[in-house]
Amino acid sequence: MAANTLKARVDGRAARRRQVRYYGKLMGRGLTHAVLILFAVIFSLPLFWMISNALKPNAEMFVLPPRWIPSQFLWNRFPEAFTYIPFALYTWNTLYIAGYNVVATVISCLLVAYGFARLEWKGRDVVFALVLATMMLPYQVTLIPQYIIFSRLHWVGTFLPLTFPAWFGNPFLIFLMRQFFMTIPPELTDAAKIDGSSELGILWRVFVPLSKPAIATMAVFTFMWNWNDFFWPLIYLTNQNQFTLSLGLYNFIGFVARTEWGLLMAASTMMTIPPVILFFFAQRSFIEGISLTGIKG
């Protein structure tokens, strides 16, 4: 009888401890989700404010305290913004530059990263360190020499200064892909060599299929950089028919006439749609690629 009573007490204490641990984990998860939701709301406020300004009358944009919900929804702002500037043409120019750079950057970075990760050659680590060191150079240092080179090549006023350099890779993305390639077992490379595959064959048949998350990450980064780029198109593009969306939005800011803030917010909202769609479709591969590229140095 005493033994059964003692066993019941022990079981009761164990059950209470399990219950305490369960509720502790539940509270921890609830607190974590609450913090994440709070930060999500904070980071979403600029987007919500932009959409709100795109829909509200001009008189309500600068009132204090600010009005988050428009008293009148001006949906006609979006078609007006689309026709105020050649929005379709600027979108095509931006998509062309971004798409071209995605393809060129992926191809060049894959080749360079494979050479640093798998090929044995003298001075490899030194050259890799020099590639990483180029990330420390501010673009202000290379701006004038690059412009002189492209000017003498008669490339200023064309898309070439914005697209051709992508064939020479990106230091950060080369580092990203190299880190991912280092995680692939060398036995796969040895097996492919035994089967008579060349280095390019190994890269295409072994590394590329296994590197889809990292490649997706590289493509998303490249697309976002080129889609949002304002500085380099401003430097090299001189014909308005070649302008990108970032340059086109600048036309809403008036120096003589008043600035069309409502149309600017509407056009900016439309400009954010493609990156948001791209991220939602590629977010799983993007997050997986980011998490896997830092496993092995």
CATH C-level category of the largest domain? Mainly Alpha
Q: What is the total tally of β strands? A: 0
CATH architecture of the largest domain: Orthogonal Bundle
Q: CATH superfamily assignment of the largest domain?
A: MetI-like
Helix content: over 70%
Oligomeric state, counting identical vs distinct chains = single chain
Furnish the topology, listing elements before pairings.
Layout: H1 2-55, H2 77-84, H3 87-117, H4 124-133, H5 139-152, H6 160-163, H7 171-181, H8 186-194, H9 199-210, H10 212-227, H11 231-236, H12 245-249, H13 261-292
How would you portray this structure in words?
With 297 residues, the chain is an all-alpha fold. It folds into 2 domains: 59 residues; 216 residues, MetI-like fold. The protein is 71% helix and 0% strand. The protein has 13 helices and no strands. Helix 2 crosses helix 13. It starts with a helix and ends in a 5-residue tail after the last helix.
In short:
The chain is an all-alpha fold and 297 residues long. Helix content is 71%, strand content 0%.
